[in-house]
């Protein structure tokens, strides 16, 4: 098996790229039982049985690996402590390390490198894990991702973007550099030497969630639009907002990067009501979501940009590498001093079961990574009538 790393190339050299999920189950399961389920679940998903190779040309691929290093261990640390320990401890994807699991009493925290997949991918892994825990028969799940060739018809780049890509790729050849895993190690050391991330998690039980859903419905907006409005209502800026969107067009439940995104800018207008602001925000979102060219623009553009230039953008942000041209492109594409004010992923009410025989998922917490192009990264997930909202940022 050999898959080119293309539209997900932005994740390869990003120094803050780990998705975290906390799963609270209905009972304290013995570690040995969880270990067995963890290993079986990893064997089920094709991507978790690969490793990443970088060719001398600079192209990178997932390739089948006979041995992987996904791991599960017991811990007494909190999710914040685990995030801080693991964000600076690079995942060795070149050796097949994509997932780390940590069992703590009735909770298990999964941490996955983004090249293992998107937020929904981790949910589908958790579903597999819970099914394995319940001794169910689970069929192998193939790897799936979005490439420049399988992005939905009608999302092609305009001639202006194609011309810009051609110009930038040609310009980059004059100072092109192929980066390797040693560069990745040094970039991690450089970026994390005087940084740490912090996470604020707000928990909403059924009564709180029902109240918010009712208010959003009365305003004529989605819960996501309502929450974004609440987040920016006290900010006296024109906020740059990014929204992650599930790019699966066929409803598949495979692990792999199948997410795309939209972005828009909005300044909260204090001269009109909160509800009217929410409706305006929803209008901006709807316009982007219904336009395939806008919906897949960033994914397709970055997928066609020279792979090593994409790497350079992440390394510019990390403070490890810089060149005159890559610095300019980094600023233009939001990897420099000006990044998204808010980047939000709402996994909504999970589309996986919460009951597996005697085991039940009581609640989930989803903490996205503080990626190079974002400032306040927000992860929202609802399970078993409990919604958790996590805000993750670099301190």
Short description:
The chain has 395 residues and is of the alpha+beta class. 35% of the residues lie in helices and 26% in strands. It is built from 12 helices and 15 strands.
Break the fold down into its secondary structure elements and pairings:
Blueprint: E1 2-4, E2 18-25, H1 31-44, E3 50-54, E4 60-64, E5 71-74, H2 79-87, E6 99-104, E7 107-113, H3 119-133, H4 159-172, H5 181-192, E8 197-204, H6 206-219, H7 223-232, E9 238-246, E10 259-267, H8 274-289, H9 292-295, H10 297-304, H11 307-318, H12 324-332, E11 340-349, E12 355-356, E13 359-367, E14 374-383, E15 386-394
| Termini separation | 40 Å
Write down the secondary-structure element order. Answer: EEHEEEHEEHHHEHHEEHHHHHEEEEE
Fraction in helix: 25-40%
C-alpha Rg (nearest Å)? 21 Å
User: Mean pLDDT score, rounded?
Assistant: 96
Q: Number of helical runs?
A: 12
Query: What kind of sheet is the major sheet?
Result: 6 strands, mixed
Approximate strand percentage = 25-35%
What is the spatial order of strands in the main beta sheet?
A: 5-6-7-2-13-12
Number of strands: 15
Low-confidence stretches: none
State the secondary-structure class: alpha+beta
Shape: globular
């Amino acid at each position: 098996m050999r898959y080119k790393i293309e539209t997900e190339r932005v994740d390869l050299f990003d120094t803050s790229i780990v998705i975290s999920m906390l799963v609270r189950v209905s009972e304290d399961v013995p570690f040995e039982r969880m270990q067995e389920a963890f290993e079986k679940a990893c064997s089920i998903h094709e991507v978790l049985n690969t490793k990443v190779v970088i060719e001398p040309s600079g192209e990178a691929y997932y390739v089948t690996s006979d041995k992987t290093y996904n791991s599960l261990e017991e811990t007494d640390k909190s999710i914040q402590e685990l995030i801080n320990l693991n964000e600076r401890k690079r995942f060795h994807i070149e050796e097949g390390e994509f997932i780390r699991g940590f069992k703590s009493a009735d909770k298990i925290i999964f941490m996955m490198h983004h090249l293992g997949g998107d937020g929904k991918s981790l949910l589908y892994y958790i579903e597999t894990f819970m099914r394995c825990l319940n001794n169910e028969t689970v069929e192998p799940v193939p790897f799936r991702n979005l490439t420049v060739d399988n992005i939905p018809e009608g999302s092609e780049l305009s001639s202006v973007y194609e011309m810009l890509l051609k110009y930038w790729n040609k310009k980059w050849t004059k100072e092109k550099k192929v980066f390797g895993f040693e560069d990745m190690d040094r970039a991690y050391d450089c970026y994390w030497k005087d940084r740490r991330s912090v996470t604020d998690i707000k928990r909403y039980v059924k009564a709180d969630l029902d109240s918010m859903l009712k208010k959003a419905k009365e305003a004529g907006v989605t819960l996501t639009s309502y929450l974004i409005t609440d987040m920016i209502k006290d900010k006296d800026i024109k906020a740059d907002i990014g929204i992650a969107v599930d790019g699966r067009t066929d409803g598949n439940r495979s692990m792999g990067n199948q997410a795309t995104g939209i972005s828009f800018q909005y300044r909260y207008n204090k001269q009109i009501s909160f509800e009217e602001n929410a409706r305006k925000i929803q209008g901006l979102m709807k316009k982007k979501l219904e336009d395939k060219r806008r919906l897949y623009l960033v994914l397709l553009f970055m997928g066609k940009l020279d792979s090593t230039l994409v790497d350079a953008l992440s390394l510019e942000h990390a403070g490890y590498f810089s060149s005159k041209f890559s610095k300019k492109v980094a600023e233009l594409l939001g990897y420099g001093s000006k990044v998204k004010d808010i980047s939000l992923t709402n996994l909504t009410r999970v589309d996986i079961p919460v009951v597996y025989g005697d085991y039940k998922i009581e609640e989930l917490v989803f903490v996205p990574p503080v990626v190079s192009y974002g400032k306040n990264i927000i992860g929202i997930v609802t399970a078993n009538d409990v919604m958790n909202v996590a805000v993750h940022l670099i301190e």
